[in-house]
Task: structure prediction
Amino acid sequence: EHHHSYELSVTPGSLVHYTLPPLFFYKPNLWWPNGMGKQSLYNIEISVDVKGFGESDSWSHQFGFRKIESTIDQATGGRLFRVNGQRVFIRGGNWILSDGLLRLSAKRYMTDIKFHADMNFNMLRCWGGGLAERPEFYHYCDIYGLLVWQEFWITGDCDGRGIPVSNPNGPLDHNLFLLCAQDTIKLLRNHASLALWVGGNEQTPPKDINSALMNYLKLHPLFKFYDENSNVC
Amino acid sequence: MATLGKMKLDSGWLAARSTEVEATGVQLTTTTPPSGPSSPWMEAAVPGTVLGTLLKNKLVPDPFYGLNNEAILDIADSGREYYTFWFFTTFETKLMENQHAALNFRGINYSGKAYLNGHERILPKGMFRRHSLDITDILNPDGKNLLAVIIYPPDHPGAIPPQGGQGGDHEIGKDVAAQYVEGWDWMTPIRDRNTGIWDEVSISITGPIKLSDPHLVSSFFDNYKRAYLHTTVDLENKSSAPAECTLTIQVSAGLDEEIFLL
Result:
């Protein structure tokens, strides 16, 4: 449906962060959570050719067009989720991890996640004491329509609210925590099913970590601009 | 000539407890590589954890049955070196001119060192971070490469109090790693704290330009009739010459079950 090419040059040994012009779609097939519609996914391929060499690298991903919002509902005090503007009644389950020896095959993930979809769930909450789940986990959540609530690695018990109270200031190395968080965000951010990043389980991360995470994850100003000026395009 | 793209290293791995291996990482990947699964070396489960490898070789009972977990030595009692393991494998890769190769670990727990053909590379701490090592200049000319990786457990594996409890003595919270491994009200402790090469290992081959971390975001207008796909991507020029590039993006609708692409 869409095939676009752009020319650019990259100087030796340098790294360029390149933003492509936005691609316009009219009435794209939208991605919906389990039970609300189809989980339409588009194959996106990005490749780079170098003059005098040919194709140098390529990358592909199954992408879902969807808009996920969540706010605290004043009436209930609970978190209200909307997907593509529609309110969602969340039927969710806790997810720690699939196997305590981390034997995490794609086949295992497919079986586990389809099982939850067959149980009519539409959200999995990845608990902060477990893993930042893997791309294969998210791939099958994309396919079966399970929204994902992904927590970072803070739990009340180990970070300031346990018995005995321990690590009130979280992990020893905050920079390492934030480096891991950044890398994890880059690893997972393109998945349609990723609905919510959460600082930790039953505990707010230490102030410096929490504000850095809020900063990494805030909506890019460009999209705020687009959202607020919807006729801008 | 090496094919562009990613080659997973998920078979043919060996493992050995570090305290039972005399050779250094340089020796293992040059003069004295292990010959096969003969003691102290054993077949390894990679990706996986040390316990997963020990279970694969029936050196521990399966912790998920009965009280077997009680029969497995906890790292608090054994010390970190007991669960510090070497992993070893070989792979073939022959680069063409102006091709570049990277060795990628999508997740190790908790830190380590990789040795490739006698060259050492550090794998810094952290369970939830990727490592990508440029190995273009340290591949063997004949295409046969020897890789050894030593993996160290979390710095603070902690100890499990007699009464158990959520997160044991909480020491694991000092590291950036999964915390359930000290045990919780629904889970017994994991004796090796999930130490190991727990996620995918791969070799990626590119030309002079390498793509990384594309970011895709969609925005909507007119009640979802109009949509835009916003894309950013990093391009890294691994070569010593300027690169004139053509960047292409192609979007095709996923095929429904009843539609086939001829």
